[in-house]
Structures are given as C-alpha cells and as structure tokens.
Amino acid sequence: MEDKRNVLVLTTRHKLNFFEVSDRPEAKKKPEAIVAYNNAKTLYRCIRPVVILFYLGRSIKWYRKVAVELLTGTS
C-alpha cells in the first residue's frame, strides 16, 4: 500500500513544518499535522482493545451484581 492519498487538513495547532519519515528505504517529508495524527492513531489502536475489555468486564460485573441483589432481595 502506498502513501499517495490526497489529504486536506485544517489545523490551528500545528505549523507548516515538515518532518522526515523513514518507514521505507527512502525517506519522505510529511507535515507536522499528519505526523501528529498518525502518532495519535497508533496510540488509539493500542489502547482501544484494553478499554473495550475494561468496559466489558465492568458491564458483566454490573449484571452479576444486579442479579445477586434481585435474588437475595437486598435492593
């Protein structure tokens, strides 16, 4: 897959600075906004499965807690 997509970015945070990114043998220059977006996207991909498991576990515990309270009549 090649990096040949046209991307429009409107940002007020980043300046028009270019960074050299060398994912492949030849280095390419990318704008600072695109590099920041790619870094955030990578972090999101790493954290997302952990967050999903955390909330799934909490929801299972919540249902278990409600079932126990209904069965014992303590609510």
Q: Work out the helix count.
A: 1
Main sheet makeup: 2 strands, antiparallel
Can you tell me the residue ranges where pLDDT is under 50 for at least 5 consecutive residues?
A: none
The count of DSSP E runs of length 2 or more, i.e. the number of strands, is 2
Structural class: mainly alpha
Count of discrete domains: 1
SSE succession: EEH
Mean of residue pLDDT?
77
Relative strand content: 5-15%
Spatial separation of the terminal alpha carbons: 57 Å
Strand order of the largest sheet: 1-2
The amount of helix comes to 40-55%
Tell the overall outline. elongated
Gyration radius over CA: 23 Å
Descriptive notes:
0% of the residues are buried. The chain has one helix and two strands, in the order E-E-H. Helix content is 55%, strand content 11%. The protein has one domain (18-72). The chain has one helix at 32-72, and strands spanning 18-21, 28-31. The termini are far apart. The model has no long low-confidence stretch (mean pLDDT 77). Strands 1-2 form a two-stranded antiparallel sheet. By secondary structure, it is mainly alpha-helical. The longest helix has 41 residues, at 32-72.
